[in-house]
Write a structure and sequence with these properties.
Layout lengths: L1 E5 L4 H15 L6 E5 L9 E2 L12 H10 L7 H12 L12 H23 L3 E2 L9 E5 L7 H11 L4 E5 L3 E6 L2 E6 L10 H13 L7 H7 L2 H4 L8 H18 L6 H14 L9 H6 L24 E5 L4 H6 L6 H13 L7 E4 L6 E4 L2 E4 L4 H18 L3 E5 L1 H8 L5 H4 L3 E3 L5 E5 L2 H6 L3 H25 L1
The chain binds uracil.
Length: 476
Amino acid sequence: MAHVTLPRIGTAEAWREAARGFLTAGTPPDQITWGDNTAPAGLFDAPCPAPPAGAVTVPRSFVQMANTVVWHNDPERFARLYTFLWRLRDAPQLMSDRGDTDLAHLRRMEKNVRRCQHKMKAFVRFREIGGPEDTRRSFAAWFEPTHHTIEPTAQFFARRFTDMDWRILTPDISVFFENGHLRFEEDHPRPELPADASEALWVTYFRNIFNPARLKVRAMQSEMPKKYWKNMPEAAAIPDLIASAPARAREMALAAPTLPPLRTAAVQAQQAALQSVWEGPAEALPRAIHACTRCPLHRTATQAVPGEGPMDADLMIVGEQPGDQEDLQGRPFVGPAGQLFDKVAAMAGLDRQAAFVTNAVKHFKFQPRGRKRLHQRPDKSEIQHCRWWLQAEVAQVRPALIVAMGATAAEALTGSGKDLMRRRGQLEQGPEGIPVLITLHPAYLLRMPDAQKRADAMSVFEADLKLAAQITQSAG
Ligand code: URA
């Protein structure tokens, strides 16, 4: 029976070297006992150097696992590793056998060591020990790791704190970093470390990042186990923070501003955009309307059709939207409905040239049908989006009267497009407080199949336009 004593510093290399030697010599696991220099050898174990290592092939994944497992605090770790390595000789696929209990055990040990390394990186707290005359600042920390993690974790601190000297002292192995060089020592006595001004900072920092509403004591103690608290200045604040957490969480909830849900915020932004006003000089307005992409209608229309007429007109005529001809020519009321309007307006004594003529919606909405484009009524959203431009035109022209022809114009100007026949011939309040006279749309007259009914509607329309002409004349 051979007994191998591994050093506590450089353990990983020493175990690898010994294991290779025994593997080369064909020594089975039950012929070896392993220990480090803290473990007594068995009564019949002969201290023995391992045989010289030959060329053995070992899967890289095993080497990686072994390099971590050797730092576990289980005295059986070296034997477990060698037993598994012995089995691997004939079954290299063992490393990927999830059902193998030996491998599962080693993997758990590996995880424990990694977790311990993680704790060390997070919970080591340095205090300054050097004097003001020293060329390099110097720090020391006392730490009590569960596993032998000083050596495999030292490089992490060396990379972080290159421009100072530091030491991490533990009951087992301690590490010193002086003038850029790492050195390990066994069994260094625990030093008296001075209180540090930065401790108060740690406590303040910890109090500030502590969120009482998120307090989960169990999770917190598993992340920051109590055994580490005594060497962490901020841990002094923990019992008080835990005790006061429920009350602080309630206070936080009461003090929290009530934020509108995201959807509400989006709707509010949309409303604000709709309620804002176009601001610019009158001559820039048609160009701005031509560039409009506020609703999807701009994608299919040939062009936007802005209003036209004198910018100081006393009368504004508002239709629904450009038709096929208007869309092609870029001018309002130039197609069949426009021609009918011109005719009735002339009969009513209304001078179209003196009026500002426009539409509630500036792009043509249609349905393609063969070579034709069939008119489609704009929906509420399109009317609402385009109201921005109508309001801008009203604000620029500031007429004495607006005539709303049809339900779409009535809706855009008064907010309601309902009960047109009952409302027609009457004045309602429109944008900027300007009176709006509601009437029929000329296209409605064109579509009426019954000649008598069409003639009646025509008379009504003419009467309304006559009223509009009178009101405008008396206002002018
Ligand atoms: N119908 C309208 O409402 N406006 C026009 O410009 C043409 C037809």
